[in-house]
Amino acid sequence: MEEFSTISVEEISKEDMLLIIKALEYTGEQTNISSFIELKNTIVKQLSILANATEAEFIEFLQK
Q: Which residues contact 24 (CB under 8 A, 6 or more apart)?
């Protein structure tokens, strides 16, 4: 297996990214494990910065 230290988000579709974000949120809420919510928030924050948008605008973009 080839080793890698980063994964490019360019290879992930909008639908898959939204699914990942929603899954992290759902899992965090259902298990009360804050790490899932924190990871979801970090992903959304970083991607919204890259997209030059607010976090709400970025989520709305994914939902379209």
A: 36, 37, 39, 40, 43
